[in-house]
Write a structure and sequence with these properties.
This protein is of the alpha/beta class and 510 residues long. It folds into three domains: 241 residues, 2-enoyl-CoA Hydratase, Chain A, domain 1 (Alpha-Beta Complex); 189 residues, 2-enoyl-CoA Hydratase, Chain A, domain 1; 31 residues, no CATH class. Helices cover 39% and strands 18% of the residues. The chain is built from 19 helices and 16 strands. The strands form two sheets. Strands 1, 2, 3, 4, 5, 6, 7 and 8 form an eight-stranded mixed β-sheet that branches. Strands 9, 10, 11, 12, 13, 14, 15 and 16 form an eight-stranded mixed β-sheet that branches. Helix 4 links the parallel strand 3 and strand 4. The longest helix has 17 residues. Bound molecules: hexanoyl-coenzyme A. Hexanoyl-coenzyme A binds next to helix 5, strand 5 and helix 6.
């Protein structure tokens, strides 16, 4: 009997050794942890249960029959994050560069199916060279099996991808379908085709970093939802994010005990909005001052900074926050901001997370660049996302709510449940100057008359009371009492029921 137990231990040790000491040392020398070390940091201590540790590839080509490593380049299983069930797979770069064989794909599909069946998030840790070149089409088929599960799981369980090393070819499409992608600065890069292929096909010299580093994806392309300094920081932040999310689409958004007074007044908010309407202020200050314990998990913080998206808690209840940022491009809605926020709103709605929207928006970005880039369709994404959302929606207009952007930003008419405004709100078709120059075009040559017209327009619309008198705003509230009013609003919406007409699925302008 003893020798059977020892055989199990021997085999386990072999699997845990991955690609061997030399490759593990090389992994560490690059500032990267191993697949198992990462799982240990991600999950609660001692909670990891591994599956398929003894799975090997079945390839016989290119001498592969002589190179088999138990586990075959990916560690899969489940564990807990702060006590809540989570499935995980972690690519082992020390085994064939983490590349994907059919057997490796089957391991991932198994945990994807389990996550869906048992209603728990799935987190993928990526550090891999794409398709196992020696396996050819079997590898491609394996990827397709994973992509299919990603699509089926979308909106059913949260899916999170963390890019912690190279991520090429097939390994970028699976993350692209998931809800959030995070990267580790300086060690992670992701691209469909690497620098060598780029050179061959279009004769362009480009480094890994320039092609797919975090500066590309977290700052410019928006592919990544955030970048962290190292493996430890990335995994710690993913644990923090999971705490804000429900386990699945039938699970209510988490509520946890709050130690922050729900009636807390914040008098500094009474002077947050400057007297000069063209002067910016930091919308994040409002967010941090009203949410529980100033705890805000921002999504895509370095991309389309003119809109802020992220998770927080109000009296313990998880909420998704969308807010215009007057500090960047005056908080205007452009293509990038619309896409970023639309995706976030859809995530919250899919997972029953109430939406809290803070509005200070001068409108949509004008200009040829935006129009040629398809602003109409991209802007419509955000409108569509807010309109179709059936979760509780609380909106607060702090200052400008001009034009179409007023409608888009979770207005009453697209089923905002409770829409508030501060006394500093200005709700109008456009800013006073532009408005009078159109409707009183004949006065353009007469600056005194035009100024009088502008003052008249301002007096009429540069306040929330016209909108409130027409019922488009439910109440005008004191800035210092914002936290209390929002918490009460959310409490009143706890049992909200609303559903959309039956359809196979909608046709959001993609
Ligand atoms: C098999 C691979 C591999 C792969 C790396 N390795 N990629 N083995 N298939 N795709 C192995 C290497 O042979 C090496 O083995 C070990 O992993 C580490 O690789 P290195 O090249 O030494 O590491 P590094 O210098 O850090 O470079 C990492 C890398 C590079 C940038 C990822 O390996 C690379 O460019 N790989 C190929 C990437 C790629 O083009 N993949 C196919 C994409 S096409 P030893 O034994 O020496 O440790 C694709 C199609 C799917 O994925 C489409 C689905 C829709």
């Amino acid at each position: 009997m003893q020798h059977i137990l020892e055989e199990l231990e021997r085999r386990r040790a072999l699997a845990r050794a991955g690609g061997g000491e030399r490759r593990i040392a090389s992994q560490h020398a690059k500032g990267k942890l191993t697949a198992r070390e990462r799982i240990d940091l991600l999950l609660d201590e001692g909670s990891f249960e591994e599956f398929d540790m003894f799975v090997e590839h079945r390839s016989h080509d290119f001498g592969m029959e002589a190179q088999r490593v138990p586990g075959d380049g990916v560690v899969t299983g489940w564990g807990t994050i702060n006590g809540r069930l989570t499935y995980v797979f972690s690519k082992d770069f020390t085994v064939f560069g983490g590349s994907l064989s059919k057997a490796h794909a089957e391991k991932i599909v198994k945990v994807q199916e389990m996550a869906m069946r048992n209603g728990a998030p799935i987190i993928g840790l990526f550090d891999a060279g794409g398709a196992r070149i020696q396996e050819g089409v079997d590898s491609l088929a394996g990827y397709a099996d994973i992509f299919l599960q990603n699509v089926l799981a979308s909106g059913v369980v949260p899916q999170i991808s963390v890019i912690m090393g190279p991520c090429a070819g097939g390994d970028v499409y699976s993350p692209a379908i998931t809800d959030f992608i995070f990267m580790v600065k300086d060690t992670a890069y992701m691209y469909v085709t690497g620098p060598d292929v780029v050179k061959t096909v279009i004769n362009e010299d480009v480094s890994h970093e320039e092609l797919g580093g975090y500066r590309v994806h977290a700052l410019k392309s928006g592919v990544s939802d955030g970048a962290f300094d190292n493996d430890l920081e990335a995994l710690t932040q993913v644990r923090r994010l999971i705490d804000f999310l429900p386990l699945n689409n039938r699970d209510p958004a988490p509520v946890r005990e709050s130690f922050d007074d729900p009636d807390r007044n914040e008098h500094s908010l009474d002077t947050l909005v400057p007297a000069n309407p063209n002067k910016p202020y930091d919308m994040k200050e409002l967010i941090l001052k009203v949410v529980d314990e100033a705890d805000f998990f921002e999504i895509s913080a370095d991309y389309a900074k003119n809109i802020i998206c992220g998770f927080a808690r109000m009296d313990g209840q998880s909420v998704g926050i969308v807010a215009n940022q007057p500090q960047v491009l005056a908080g205007v809605l452009d293509i990038d901001a619309s896409r970023k926020a639309a995706r976030f709103v859809r995530f919250c709605d899919a997972f029953g997370i109430p939406l809290l929207t803070f509005v200070d928006v001068p409108g949509f970005m004008p200009g040829t660049k935006q129009e040629q880039g398809g602003l109409i369709k991209h802007g419509a994404k955000l409108l569509f996302a807010f309109a179709e959302a059936t979760v509780p929606k609380v909106t607060l207009i702090t200052r400008k709510a001009y034009g179409g952007a007023f409608d888009v930003m979770s207005s009453k008419n697209i089923r905002g449940d409770l829409n508030y405004a501060w006394p500093t709100a200005e709700i109008a078709v456009m800013g006073p100057k532009q408005a009078v120059e159109i409707i009183f075009r004949a006065d353009i040559g007469d600056p005194t008359r035009l100024a009088a017209r502008e003052a008249e327009y301002k007096a009429h619309f540069a306040n929330p009371f016209v909108a409130a008198s027409h019922g488009y705003i439910d109440d005008v509230i004191m800035p210092h009492g914002t936290r209390r009013r929002i918490i009460r609003a959310l409490a009143s919406l706890k049992s909200k029921t609303l559903s959309n007409p039956w359809k196979k699925h909608d046709n959001i302008p993609l």
